[in-house]
Predict the structure of NERD domain-containing protein.
Amino acid sequence: MRSIYNDFVSPEEKGEIGEDIIYRDLARIKGRKAFLPNCYIPKHNGGTTEIDLIFLHESGVYVIESKNYSGWIFGDEEQEYWTQCLQSVGGIAAKKQFYNPLWQNEIHIYALMELLQDDTFPYYSYIVFGDNCELKNIRLTSGNHHVTYYEYLLQDISGNAQQMGRCLSNEKMDELYSLLVKFTDASAEQKARHIEEVRAKHYPIIQPDGTWTCPQCGGRLVPRVARQGSGAGKTFWGCSNYPKCHFIYNE
Ligand SMILES: [Zn+2]
């Protein structure tokens, strides 16, 4: 339990350090602006989605996802999971997978658009990585996302703002701010509930009749045997809706 919990908490904590750097830099951008950190935006199918930072600027709404990771980062727009490669002391690379941050930010923006019901201004997706990681061959295909390092964020957003010009009136900015501020600074209780929701998605749901169902799609869980990889031959639980649903559970 503990290790799964850690997987979700420590990047957030690390993220906070990165967010301080982001505020400091974005405060230098010319024009009217406001910060809305840690927004918990309701999703239409229930639950919430957490946006690290909404940067309201006269040039539009910047939805910023901060990843203060180290190591080498591999991935592209179509891959569900990206890989973080850490060089260990013994020279053996440790690999970790994390959900495609572009898809993650698309979920954020979608929830925000649903909430605001307003497309009279642009929304921008920014994924910002820590300076102590190296992005390797990250391929962006749709042109909908900006992927950069903390170091270049100021430059990147300034350039975008200059190119787009003014897209939000003072009145509109005030309106958006007062609406969104209600979703920021979530209480510890709300934060805990959000972490619990995320964690719950990784455990089977035990039905009253003792069968297990998938926490992500509601499908039946069935025992399967791993064919390849280091776990070849081992049994795990897979979703009966595979390949539509990729949920797996190792006891
Ligand atoms: Zn499933």
Notes: The pocket of zinc ion is lined by residues 214, 216-217, 219, 239, 241, 245, 247 (CB under 6 Å). The chain has five helices and 14 strands. The longest strand covers residues 33-42. Confidence is low (pLDDT under 50) at residues 1-10.
